[in-house]
Design goal:
By secondary structure, the chain is an alpha/beta fold. The protein has twelve helices and 19 strands. The protein has helices at about 5-20, 30-35, 80-90, 115-120, 140-155, 170-180, 265-285, 310-325, 335-340, 375, 470-475, 490-515, and strands at about 65-75, 105, 125-130, 160-165, 185, 190, 205-210, 230-235, 235-240, 240, 250, 290-295, 330, 360, 380-385, 390, 430, 435, 445-450. The radius of gyration is 22 Å and the shape is globular.
């Protein structure tokens, strides 16, 4: 068996390779002339059509518009990736007292399916990132991911509405495919020009009724009215900018980048441009800001972790500071889009359902494999595949899922086959062992834990703000957050088995880098 130190040496190298090719931009990816964009606002009306515009949707003034910080993660779901996300979000509250939710663009290589279930049941969005992390993906990579997430993680198909392309590599045909498959939105395009520039491409999310207005310089055949995909949304990824402005863009994992033309990473400089970009958005037209992460790069628990405590503190310092600005919310892509489709002023966010929080009302003593750790303890199936094993509530397949066969027959040697999620039951109420819903449409209940928003939308948010006794009691929910990463830990032998896959990923990533 290979020693843990050898595996630990490979993981940072894999992270380095991926960092070099994923989510990086070096300058503008669009321009007004390249976009050639024209939209008839008199015909394009919410909730199903929205023109690409820097103005807040629905005719709201910036002062009546919330400031949204969109938090996303890409790639495999493992205990160490959820630990990485939790260190930034688990201790926070939005202005209504709810824990912030995020979007996990999930690919299935090395994913532990039961953690996907747990993360979804905890209220987060699960979105598609292909099965095997392929840029400009063939349809089987996208549909296979949908099938496997549904069959092995119990995510309802109707809830998987978003997509992000690996390496942010996509084409016009990719967008057409997503619309054909019934996705609601894509979030692969870059907003690469600062909001302070007259020709900024930092548009609020928009539909493709009149074509794309982003990435016009980098994706062939796009913009100038193409592709026309009525009702299909683009949620741009908003770049951050250091002191160089338009010449100093940062997109995914900005804490890995050097700033201001320097040769080494500097957390202080990163914090400065995080704040300055936020301020430009906040004091302008309130376009959202994004923190787009690959959690492996900020994980302290993955073998061979290289991230520093200084970087973790810097990211939390930024979020603390951002949440102190009035009417700032940390949200998922899905929550952002829900607000854009039905924009309400900050004075009405108390009653805005998509930003509320609720907990499935399931008896904690009930033994049911449902994505809630205290209910499913001892009931998970362990699928001990040699390349990378995983746990699931929904029965082990005879072989690992692939794009060609995303739903292999169940292995039943060790017991009865488990039942896959019924289309008329919600995940936390479905018993895959008995094959029954523990409630019906009238009795499946969720407990609302949100509370009225205070007179200042920021006075009860953020770790620093809620640390006082008064604020803590005001934000306490009926069911305090328990990080949903409680599935059994994978054994040390699994890490050795994973080394084969890691080496393969290194070889593939090296080949991808060679194309640029």
């Amino acid at each position: 068996m290979l020693p843990a130190t050898l595996l630990a040496a490979f993981l940072p190298l894999l992270g380095f390779v991926l960092a070099q090719e994923e989510g990086q931009i070096s300058g503008p990816t669009s321009s007004s002339s390249a976009a050639g964009y024209s939209c008839d606002a008199s015909k394009c009306k919410l909730p199903d059509c929205n023109c690409a515009s820097t103005d807040p949707p629905g005719g709201l003034s910036p002062s009546d518009t919330p400031m949204f910080v969109v938090f996303t993660a890409d790639d495999a779901v493992q205990s160490y990736t959820l630990d990485a996300v939790n260190q930034f979000l688990a201790h926070r509250k939005n202005p209504n007292g709810c824990q912030p939710k995020m979007t996990y663009y999930t690919s299935l290589n090395y994913t532990n399916y039961t953690l996907v279930t747990d993360w979804y049941v905890a209220g987060n969005e699960i979105a598609d990132h292909t099965m095997t992390h392929v840029g400009t993906p063939p349809e089987a990579e996208v549909t296979g991911n949908l099938v496997a997430l549904n069959q092995l993680a119990g995510i309802p198909l109707k809830e998987i509405i978003g997509f992000r392309a690996p390496y942010l590599n996509y084409s016009v045909d990719t967008l057409k495919m997503l619309a054909k498959l019934g996705f609601t939105y894509d979030s692969s395009a870059s907003a690469s020009i600062p909001v302070t520039e007259d020709d900024t491409d930092a548009y609020w999310p928009y539909t493709l009724d009149y074509g794309m207005a982003n990435d016009c310089l980098v994706v062939d055949g796009m913009c100038k009215g193409e592709p026309k995909l009525p009702g299909f949304w683009e949620i741009p990824m908003y770049a951050l900018f250091d002191e160089r402005g338009i010449d100093g863009p940062h997109l995914m994992d900005p804490w890995l980048d050097t700033a201001n033309g320097q040769s080494t990473v500097n957390d202080t400089a990163t914090l400065e441009y995080l704040k300055s970009t936020f301020t430009a958005h906040y004091n302008g037209k309130r376009q959202p800001l994004g923190l787009y992460t690959h959690p492996i790069h900020v994980s302290l628990s993955v073998p061979g972790a290289t991230v520093s405590n200084s970087t973790i503190k810097m990211i939390n310092d930024f979020l603390d500071w951002a949440q102190m600005q009035p009417n700032t919310w940390i949200v998922s892509s899905e929550q952002l889009l829900a607000w854009v489709r039905n924009p309400v002023p900050v004075s009405q966010l108390d009653s805005f359902e998509p930003l509320k929080c609720s907990t499935p009302a399931v008896d904690p003593s009930l033994k049911i494999c449902n994505g809630i750790p205290q209910n499913e303890e001892g009931l998970l199936a362990h699928c001990a595949f040699p390349d990378f094993p995983f746990y699931t509530c929904y029965g082990c397949p005879q072989e690992p899922p692939t794009p060609a066969q995303p739903n292999p027959p169940q292995a039943t040697e060790s017991g009865q086959a488990r039942f896959r999620l019924s289309s008329n039951c919600s995940t936390p109420f479905w018993d895959p062992i008995k094959g029954e819903c523990i409630c019906n449409s009238a009795t499946c209940a969720f407990t609302d834990q949100s509370r009225p928003i205070g007179p200042n939308g920021a006075n009860l948010t953020g770790d620093q703000v809620s640390s006082g006794a008064g604020a803590a009691s005001a934000t306490e929910s009926a069911n305090p957050y328990v990080p949903f990463n409680a599935a059994p830990q994978l054994s040390s032998g699994v890490w050795t088995a994973a080394l084969v896959g890691v080496v393969g990923a290194l070889v593939g990533a090296y080949g991808a880098v060679g194309r640029f």
